[in-house]
């Protein structure tokens, strides 16, 4: 096994690649009671058009199928896999986002049995017409729940304003109409394409025996050879935003808003992406973080409250910044922010150095929790980033990188405003 | 691994736990009050303190100070534990070995400054700050309707506990906000700091002696007679089930059932109650998950929650509006199954193990540990996590069935769409 160390934070992980192409990462956390393992595939709601390895034709599937598949993986011929985890006192779960589907468990006992269970059930699909129909009602209610959530709606409306044709504008769970079209054959097709170990990664962390864990994983992977390349077909998204304003009326007490900035510098992963990700996050902190002039002005004018937050989401093929919260006047918030962005000379390098310290602290905090380590690891891994490189990349960032992000990303042309109002 | 306890001064208790696995040191401060007519004022204090101290006069400068301290974080929250109103302040500092600074001393000094030396102008708080924070608190109270899932539960509790102090919302009411100004709020704040019990929990890789010495140095303040907080009443018989419907612009109905358990937080019956709640709706092994979600596809979520300190149990679910009666009947049927003792070994064992896992997992989070010890204090229990687990493991299925006799349906709350209604609400007596 290969060792990957980070001396600054005193953490290391072990890496091995299985003959099937599965990447395995294991991390020892001494003194922790909880163990956490996550088995993820590089397959999410964005992958709705693709060419199956060995075929020539394009396959297109209904919206929401990756998430539907995630739900159905918990069913086996003998019953629900939840039952097996429950018998071991472990709590199993799963999630689907734009790029990833992940299966996970947290336990404080019987870790190796649970690990074996995790590896096996994800390799064992069992779909019937009957159990697919049953799930449509459940996921239908999940979709309804999100329809009533103003924060979710304001976010997806923002994505719809940012993007013309990129699948990121499609709701992860699809719609009640789109999932009604899902059948057994489609699910098996998606499974066979995207759940090959060479498209997957397994990460486990806790006070665990590294060699024993590795052996359990390798002994239980059925595939012995790698798969050909999956060709994913993403449409050619233009650089311009789709529309600069979108609003929806819902049952809320006051307007909720998301200001979005579309990232046009995309198409790469790895350390370069990590550097861009951190630079953008620091830019957002300088612009509108808790210690910024902007935050103080907006707050004192009664335009924002403590729900005000900034965030950058940077994937390999797309990315965007969000500034959001509640406000009686979202347009005024956006205007003030654009004004600040028009004159970047007001930002100071000393503030940048301090914000960097803040990010160091944030990184340290993330390593307190095994769940948090696992979730972050996977999220970075899907962008070809190893989380342990975080501090080194952070140290490299210069003030000029921040200024560049202000110039090329956080500007009026790239911006949209999404509002949900009463 | 033991928790060390010392009294710093009247009504200020310090608890220290030295654990060397975390990368940060967490200092959780809890200020306890009685939940009652002062709820609104009490809930406003953390927001005002955040705006400035005598030395660091603005929120911006406080933020800068914390960022410079290697991204230290300070967050505050206000919530209820039974009829007890609590302000919580969480200060998290990077561990010294990563940064080579006596950060604990700087942190403890700052915490003292933050809590006891706010910015004062002419014997009052800063007027502009108070007005802004009042406005924000008003918005926060009004925006409860945004999160429908949580709001449905809150509304059920409100209706269920009408006339009891527990029905007071943790941020108080808009009417009471109107009575507050910078002078009377400052007077009230002084009274709180002089008379309310304060618990401070320090968890992380620390030298306990040094922590005690630091807090003696910084927190040795003069105080008056400390308020003793009355116990929350948990016993209440139900005369008749209440049915409440709210109409909002929603596409999904939210069904919430409120039950009285009539069990106090440290009664022997509390442990079987915890398992009762788990078997009924505590996870994918539970009756509600299996029957409401998996077998009938009526809901994506159907689960229970215990309000340990008020003796309540809630069942919550999001459903198609037309399925109200069908779902209600099915849920009540599961409650009936519990009473009849139709509990499988699988349901019982899985719940027991799930509770054990979640109790053990507390050991991996500094804040969860602090919350656990603080809650145990309120419940007058000296049980550590291991003792707690031992008590759970002594529970038998029969104990759970016996507890089901205590549990009485009090309120059925339904949030429905503007167009939808409730088909002839309920017929359960």
Automatic annotation (TrEMBL), chain A:
Pfam families xref list: Peptidase_M16, Peptidase_M16_C
GO MF term list: metal ion binding
Ranges for domain Peptidase M16 C-terminal: 181-358
Cross-referenced SUPFAM superfamilies: LuxS/MPP-like metallohydrolase (SSF63411)
Peptidase M16 N-terminal domain boundaries: 63-175
Family matches, as InterPro entries: Metalloenz_LuxS/M16, MPP/UQCRC_Complex, Pept_M16_N, Peptidase_M16_C
Protein name (Swiss-Prot/TrEMBL): Insulinase family protein
Species assigned in the record: Aceticella autotrophica
Lineage: Bacteria, Bacillati, Bacillota, Clostridia, Thermoanaerobacterales
UniProtKB/TrEMBL annotation, chain B:
Domain (Peptidase M16 C-terminal) ranges: 181-353
GO MF assignments: metal ion binding
Superkingdom per UniProt: Bacteria
Pfam families for this protein: Peptidase_M16_C
Protein name: Insulinase family protein
Organism: Aceticella autotrophica
């Amino acid at each position: 096994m290969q060792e990957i160390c980070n001396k600054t934070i005193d953490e290391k992980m072990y890496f091995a690649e299985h003959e099937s192409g599965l990447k395995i990462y294991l991390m020892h956390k001494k003194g922790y009671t909880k163990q956490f393992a996550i088995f993820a595939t590089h397959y999410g709601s964005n992958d709705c058009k693709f060419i199956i390895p060995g075929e020539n034709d394009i396959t297109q599937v209904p919206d929401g199928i990756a998430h539907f598949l995630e739900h159905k993986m918990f069913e086996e011929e003998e019953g629900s896999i939840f039952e097996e985890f429950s018998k071991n006192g472990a709590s199993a779960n799963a999630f689907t986002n734009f790029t990833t589907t992940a299966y996970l468990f947290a336990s404080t006992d019987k870790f190796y049995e649970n690990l074996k269970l995790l590896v096996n059930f994800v390799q064992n699909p069992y779909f019937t017409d009957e159990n697919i129909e049953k799930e449509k009602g459940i996921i239908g209610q999940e979709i309804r729940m999100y329809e009533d959530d103003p924060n979710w709606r304001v976010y997806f409306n923002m994505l719809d304003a940012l993007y013309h044709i990129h699948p990121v504008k499609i709701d992860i769970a699809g719609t009640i109409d789109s999932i009604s079209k899902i059948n057994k054959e489609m699910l098996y097709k998606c499974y066979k394409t995207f759940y090959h170990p060479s498209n997957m990664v397994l990460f486990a962390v806790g006070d665990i025996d590294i060699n024993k864990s590795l052996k359990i994983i390798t002994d239980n992977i059925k595939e012995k050879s790698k798969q050909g390349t999956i060709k994913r077909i993403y449409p050619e998204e233009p650089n311009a935003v789709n529309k600069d304003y979108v609003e929806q009326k819902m049952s809320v007490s006051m307007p909720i808003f998301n200001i979005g900035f579309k990232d046009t510098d995309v198409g790469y992963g790895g350390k370069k992406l990590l550097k861009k990700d951190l630079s953008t996050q620091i830019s957002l902190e300088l612009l509108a973080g808790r210690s910024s002039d902007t935050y103080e002005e907006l707050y004192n004018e009664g335009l924002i409250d403590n729900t005000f937050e900034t965030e950058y989401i940077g994937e390999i093929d797309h990315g965007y910044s969000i500034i959001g919260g509640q406000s009686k006047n979202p347009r005024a918030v956006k205007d003030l922010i654009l004004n600040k962005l028009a004159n970047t000379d007001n930002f100071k390098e000393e503030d940048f150095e301090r914000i960097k310290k803040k990010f160091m602290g944030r990184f340290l905090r993330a390593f307190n929790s095994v769940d948090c380590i696992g979730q972050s690891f996977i999220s970075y891994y899907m962008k070809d980033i190893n989380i342990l490189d975080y501090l080194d990349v952070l140290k490299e960032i210069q003030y000029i990188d921040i200024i560049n992000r202000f110039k090329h990303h956080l500007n009026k042309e790239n911006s949209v405003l999404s509002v949900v109002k009463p | 691994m033991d928790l060390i306890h010392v009294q710093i001064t009247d009504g200020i208790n310090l608890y220290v736990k030295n654990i060397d696995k975390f990368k940060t040191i967490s200092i959780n401060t809890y200020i306890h009050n009685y939940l009652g007519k002062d709820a609104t004022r009490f809930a406003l204090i953390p927001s005002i303190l955040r705006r400035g101290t005598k030395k660091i006069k603005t929120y911006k400068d406080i933020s800068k100070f914390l960022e410079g301290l290697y991204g230290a974080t300070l967050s505050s929250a206000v919530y209820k534990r039974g009829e007890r109103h609590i302000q919580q302040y969480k200060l998290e500092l990077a561990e010294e070995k990563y940064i080579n600074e006596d950060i604990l001393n700087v942190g403890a000094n700052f915490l003292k400054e933050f809590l006891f030396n706010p910015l004062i102008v002419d014997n009052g708080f800063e007027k502009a700050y108070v007005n802004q924070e009042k406005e924000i608190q008003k918005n926060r109270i009004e925006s409860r309707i945004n999160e429908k899932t949580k709001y449905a539960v809150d509304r059920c509790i409100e209706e269920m506990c009408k006339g009891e102090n527990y029905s007071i919302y943790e941020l108080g009411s808009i009417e009471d906000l109107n009575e507050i100004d910078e002078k009377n709020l400052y007077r009230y704040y002084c009274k709180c700091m002089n008379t309310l019990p304060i618990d401070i929990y320090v968890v992380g890789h620390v030298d306990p002696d040094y922590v005690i010495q630091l807090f003696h140095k910084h927190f040795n303040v003069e105080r008056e007679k400390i308020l003793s907080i009355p116990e929350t009443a948990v016993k209440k018989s139900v005369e008749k089930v209440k049915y409440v419907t709210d109409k909002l612009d929603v596409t999904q109905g939210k069904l919430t059932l409120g039950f009285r358990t009539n069990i106090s937080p440290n009664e022997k019956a509390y442990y079987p109650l915890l398992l009762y709640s788990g078997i009924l709706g505590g996870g994918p092994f539970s009756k509600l998950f299996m029957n409401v979600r998996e077998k009938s596809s009526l809901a994506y979520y159907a689960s229970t929650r215990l309000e340990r300190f008020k003796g309540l149990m809630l069942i919550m679910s999001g459903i198609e509006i037309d399925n109200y009666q069908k779902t209600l009947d099915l849920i009540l049927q599961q409650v009936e199954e519990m009473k009849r003792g139709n509990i499988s070994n699988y349901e019982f064992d899985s719940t027991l193990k799930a509770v054990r896992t979640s109790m053990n997992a507390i050991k991996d989070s500094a804040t969860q540990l602090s919350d656990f010890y603080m809650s145990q204090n309120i419940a007058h229990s000296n049980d550590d996590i291991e003792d707690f687990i031992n008590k759970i493991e002594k529970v038998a299925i029969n104990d759970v069935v016996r507890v089901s006799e205590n549990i009485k349906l009090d309120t059925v709350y339904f949030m429905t769409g503007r167009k939808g209604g409730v088909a002839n609400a309920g017929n359960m007596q």
